[in-house]
Amino acid sequence: MRQRAAPFLFVRSGAVRVPGGGRRAAGRGEGRVLDPPPGGVAVALGSRDGGVVRSGRRYPVERWSGDLNAAAAAVAALGGGTLVAPEGVFECDGFAQYEGTCGFHLPAGVGLVGAGPGTQLRVRPRSMTAAQRATIPAASPSRPTNQLNVVTAAGGAGTVFADFAVHGSDQDGALYNGLRLSRIAAPTVRDVLVRGIPGDLNSPPGETFGVNVYRSDGARLTRVEVDGRDDAGRRVGAAGIGTNSVTDVELRDCSAHHLAHSHGLAMWQTERLTSWGFAASDNGGPSGGHAAAGLNHERSSRCVHHAPRLGRNTLCEVRYWSDRSDTGGHELHDLVMVDDGPLDIWLSREQHTAPELVDCPPPVYTRN
């Protein structure tokens, strides 16, 4: 059997770390992976279930010596397309892109396809600047949100993001988000792992998101996993997958687990969301601002979940909340509890309509 090659580590400005710990500058014609690890650049651009990547033109990141931000900017200038990245750790310094809000910026029309979870994106540990840290809002009654992200993809339509991982890193205790999709029409996210994104509350600004689908109507997520544990196994995450001010979202076989402070699937002002097989378990702290629901609906309507797998979420398994008026059209089908606990469903005082239950365990309702 052929021995698996050691992955390459690409860093900002095109410098390349080579196996064995050496480092050299990537000058003209250098820094290219001439013999990539198995499963690297030659990754097929179709999904594992036969889907088709819609961004037609494909560009290996090695053309830009492994500098992902430089590659993304160049492809955007060429009119868009899909970046193809091999296995390796792509690392940037701080949150310097997109007006100082993210580590990696994928402009409108630029997608990213990696080689699986071995294609890792992260911010270099302890590289957040004082100016970037100053943008993190303090807690206040208005509950402003944290705008820092490891990866921000913004604008465009039909862009594909697949087969890579986003990892958190220590920024001296500062909080930030993972992958943000912002104002993209009908994006596709497939086979993406987000791990160890730090948060500290179940409401802003301490509520950060592993994946945040923001004003990206028609988003399709398949096999997206948010693991709230960092690389040392400590539970650090807040919310898993968030859908914010969005309509017509579909999630298939996605999951969020071992979050320390917030909900597995957090829906805010979301309309017509449908999920199949969403798994949310082992989320939340013991009480108060750290407790979590598996499925949390806030000011949301017509959310339908088929065969969700829930259990060991510390607040409740499913929550419906509104501070304005009753919302309706919610359904739960074929729900499975992964533990022996009850199917506890919380309804806010303004939420008078319970969800329609089809082939689910007997519910226990709580009004709060």
Task: Characterise the protein shown here.
The protein is mainly beta and about 375 residues long. Helix content is about 5%, strand content about 40%. The protein contains 3 helices and 28 strands. It has a 28-stranded mixed β-sheet that branches. A hairpin with a 5-residue loop joins strand 2 and strand 3 (about 25). The chain is globular, with a radius of gyration of 20 Å.
Secondary structure blueprint with pairings:
Layout: E1 8-11, E2 16-17, E3 23-24, E4 58-60, H1 68-77, E5 81-84, E6 88-92, H2 97-100, E7 102-106, E8 110-113, E9 119-123, H3 130-134, E10 149-154, E11 160-167, E12 177-182, E13 188-195, E14 209-214, E15 220-227, E16 239-252, E17 255-257, E18 265-276, E19 279-281, E20 293-298, E21 301-306, E22 309-311, E23 316-321, E24 331-333, E25 336-337, E26 343-347, E27 356-358, E28 363-367
